[in-house]
Amino acid sequence: MIKVIETTTAAEFWDKLSPEKPIFQKPCRLLYRGQANHKWSLTPGILRSGVTMRSRIDVFKEWAYVHQFVEHCDSIGLSIPNDSPSLREEFLSLNNPVGPGGSWRDWPPPEIYGLLALAQHYRLPTRLLDWSTRSYVGAYFAISDVLTKKVDEKTDRLAVWVLNVEMKALFPKLRLVNVPGGNNANLAAQSGCFTLLLCNREPPYEEEQSLDGYLTGQSIPPPLVKVTLPVSEASAAQELCRLYGVTGATLFPDYYGAARGAVDRLSTEPRLP
Question: Where are the domains of the chain?
């Protein structure tokens, strides 16, 4: 059972997420992921795009997303992480005798973690989940998505998931993926990292689809807590983000971020007549 902490005000929500008051007993190492709807599970984008991982065809589809990403990077002269002839021959070639993706039983192999992280950050569906080591960054993404109407009108609460990765060794399929911030300014600004659930590429395809489902299905208590806030408090929480320097501009240090920061600010202020 996942512990849920329901807060009623932006101030209470902010206090519960304070890095000075860790939700788990020490020693702990916490990651934070914000979602605009508290009912959403921790399901990776690739599994929300029509790929179910319930058949050999779906395993190939996931590999095909990565393959196409690399082809398009090549076509416009963009480099990819850890590129080498052996990487392309073993993991990216359609002509590999053991099939696309190489001979690894668990997918994906460590050699392409960096490639998946890059693709994920630019919105390609992968089996990675985005997290931040900063609690208020996680809160920002949930709040911003609510205020920019990325949820339906029936949504009553947003959520920040808190994961204690100090315990990840107890969960054999869970991996933590870190990539150099020098390759991605946005990732560095967001103190970002990723989690990954390994998938068995051999039948039967009975893998758990969501991280929360996997963690609650084990024999020990899940190292996961969900902190929720009424969406009616999103504007007040967004103002707290701004006061603490967590804005679209600081998390996306480019023109896109400046525009996002402007939209965020205007979404919390009365409109001019």
Answer: 1-40+129-171+223-273
